[in-house]
């Protein structure tokens, strides 16, 4: 039943019925949180064995260093080796950091602001801009806004961002970069096609200090048996001599513990050198006990993949719950569309145009907290007010099912209200 | 026997004898490292029990938060409480960070550069300066130099820096702050007198965006039974309404594990607010598993003090070894003076004027690595070329005794060479 084909009378009648249902939910006084991509309690239990001190042996890293003491700026060798396998990047092009890739990205852009990326400091160049594939990750946009970098929306489809538009815009010297999640993208869950990656690698920006923040947060975060594959950006870049344009990051936040994982940066020789020269001033080294703990627990790429399958089992049941509810409640009504990702942490839901804010507000009133409408766009401004990021991971499956029922109801209420005007 | 009273002939004869001894040391091919304030292997063993996962219980912080997950920007409540006891600062004026107070200081100054400290960003004000009590900590100076902040030497005595000079210099609006270690100072081991602290608190700088980086790294790091006491800078500042001028930091790097401790910042309400607003962009939160591990192991201030006594026992034997050797080998020769600290990690050795570089080079050649001569001054330039930072903690006691023998020998050789001209 496509809502748009109903008469005014039928819509009014249907709205009355839906509002009755909505009010009965409201009366329950629920408190359900689907706002952030936080792993659920069941996922937190999966890695507890990593805290066994026996894994730390005699505290010696493979280079003989005592991991309890100061030193080793860029990470213990076995930890770099593990990430080298995961990202398919040489160990010498990796640096292991603290518990958050967000901090790596913030610090990298702060460094570009103050010291530049091989040219004048960004803070001294007025009117600089970044290209932001949308819908995207609100914390990325927050960093750019914080530093006063103007953001330009780049629409995306199932292959990634509109590369024609990016190729055109980078001819402007003021455009200093792109920030994106190329695999199981936040929030759409799509993975950039090989052609998209190749076109990124072949970009010819006017700015000599151009940088793409390639946030590969979900590189091993498959949910379905069908895995997406992302072309290695550095392999593609090498063919074009553009390695310096790319700063790749990832972390174990959604592999081991969100609050106590380790993060890593991959970059060209030139960029690694510049970053290390800043790091020697900023730190003596990151937590190497945690690095050794991670390596001795996860062992190698195969070990990581086996561990990720445990997460996938939990996540698949939650993603299916959301997708099944969308399919059975919203499909065919002409008021919503959504992505069906093979991995990552989110589903991107497009509601009836102009209805995202109202839908989120209705949910909130009924005790279901969603990511704020607009959050998936720079400055929190969704030009069509239709995108909502769905984060199914944190609630229990039962809570999630309840929350999605309410969400579907609110999507329809908001759409009918809009059509009725 | 004061060397300066010897005749040229006597000096030449003595030099020949000392060089013979020196060459026999050189022939041993030793490799001894006294360059950094790194805890020794014996100290690293003291905290291993903190890694027992039983200490983490059900992973819940006192506010009910699961420490394994994302969240809690400023530290779990019990961790703030512990540091509140240690620093005698209200928990709401504290933020718990990652494993390095060096990073807190770097990030704070980076923030002042890009966003200012309540006024124009420092990066936009040309010719800004910091006052640096000397001798001081090389990593402090490295941060300031990295950001292009001009450094001005402030001589110190047993009460702290020359406050008259500081009071005069802060009348220059370009002077934006001071960076110092007020307790068991690096490298002199002295603690600022109550009067010094009160004069800091009463400073009337021309710059409205004036900041003192109060690096209280050694606040609980006593070695002797006689403990120094440092006046609480925030208590003194409150009387003058100058709380916003002070940023205090400390860490557990030399309490638990140097590479895997936790660090903390104490500041006024205004500064905490400004720092948190930056942090919400930079991170979702620091490693809370490590925070809980620390609190449940150390328990409270008394627990920390008991733990520090174990470190003190190890350190006292090493400090005594150095001081005894200095006393028996160098005293009365008129070529060296040194501090006798009650705590901290260093002894400050002043050799014969113009001889620090030569002394360090002689040591190096004989296999003893010291902190570079000049390192205790901004830009690595000791105007009198006489200060050497002695770091007795890292070598074993046997290695240390050997290293100090060689050091004393080199001090005398360099002095005699200098006098002979």
* Share in helix of chain A: 40-55%
The CATH homology group name of the largest domain in chain A? Type I PLP-dependent aspartate aminotransferase-like (Major domain)
Please give the domain count of chain A.
2
Measured between the Cα atoms of the first and last residue of chain A, the distance is: 20 Å
Order of helices and strands of chain A: HEHHEHEHEEHEHEHEEHHHEEHEEH
Q: Strand pairing plus helix content of chain A: what structural class?
A: alpha/beta
CATH class division of the largest domain in chain A? Alpha Beta
Mean pLDDT of chain A: 97
What's the alpha carbon Rg of chain A, rounded to whole Å?
23 Å
Put simply, the count of helices of chain A is 13
What would the CATH topology of the largest domain in chain A be? Aspartate Aminotransferase, domain 2
Describe what is shown at a glance.
The structure is a homodimer of 421-residue chains. The first copy, chain A, is α/β, with parallel strands linked by helices and 421 residues long.
């Amino acid at each position: 039943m496509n809502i748009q084909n109903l008469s005014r009378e039928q819509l009014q009648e249907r709205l009355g019925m839906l509002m009755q249902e909505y009010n009965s939910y409201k009366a329950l006084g629920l408190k359900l949180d689907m706002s952030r991509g936080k792993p659920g309690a069941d996922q937190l239990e999966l890695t507890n064995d990593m805290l066994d001190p026996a894994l730390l042996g005699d505290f010696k890293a493979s280079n003989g260093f005592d991991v309890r003491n100061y030193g080793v700026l860029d990470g213990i060798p076995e930890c770099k080796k593990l990430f080298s396998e995961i990202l398919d990047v040489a160990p010498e092009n990796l640096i292991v950091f603290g518990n958050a890739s967000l901090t790596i990205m913030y610090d990298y852009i702060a460094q570009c602001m103050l010291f530049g990326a091989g040219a004048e400091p960004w803070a001294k160049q007025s009117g600089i801009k970044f290209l932001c594939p949308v819908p995207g990750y609100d914390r990325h946009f927050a960093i750019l806004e914080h530093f006063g970098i103007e953001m330009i929306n780049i629409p995306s489809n199932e292959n990634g961002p509109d590369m024609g538009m990016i190729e055109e815009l980078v001819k402007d010297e003021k455009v200093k970069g792109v920030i994106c999640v190329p695999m199981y993208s936040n929030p759409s869950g799509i993975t950039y096609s090989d052609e998209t990656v190749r076109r990124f690698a072949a970009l010819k920006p006017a700015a000599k200090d151009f940088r793409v923040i390639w946030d590969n947060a979900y590189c091993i975060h498959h949910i379905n048996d069908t895995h997406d594959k992302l072309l290695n950006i550095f392999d593609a870049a090498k063919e074009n001599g553009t390695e310096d344009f790319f700063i790749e990051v990832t972390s174990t936040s959604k592999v081991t513990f969100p609050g106590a994982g380790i993060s890593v940066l991959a970059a060209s020789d030139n960029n690694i050198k510049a970053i290390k020269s800043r790091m020697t001033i900023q730190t003596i080294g990151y937590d190497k006990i945690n690095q050794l703990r991670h390596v001795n627990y996860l062992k190698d790429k195969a070990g990581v993949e086996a561990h990720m399958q445990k997460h996938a089992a939990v996540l698949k049941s939650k993603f299916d719950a959301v997708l099944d509810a969308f399919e059975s409640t919203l499909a065919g009504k002409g008021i919503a569309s959504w992505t069906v990702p093979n991995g990552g942490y989110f589903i991107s839901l497009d509601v009836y145009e102009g209805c995202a804010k109202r839908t989120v507000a209705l949910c909130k009133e009924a005790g279901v907290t969603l990511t704020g409408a607009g959050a998936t766009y720079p400055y929190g401004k969704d030009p069509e007010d239709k995108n909502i990021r769905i984060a199914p991971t944190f609630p229990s499956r039962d809570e999630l099912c309840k929350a999605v029922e309410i969400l579907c109801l609110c999507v329809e209420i908001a759409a009918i209200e809009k059509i009725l005007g």
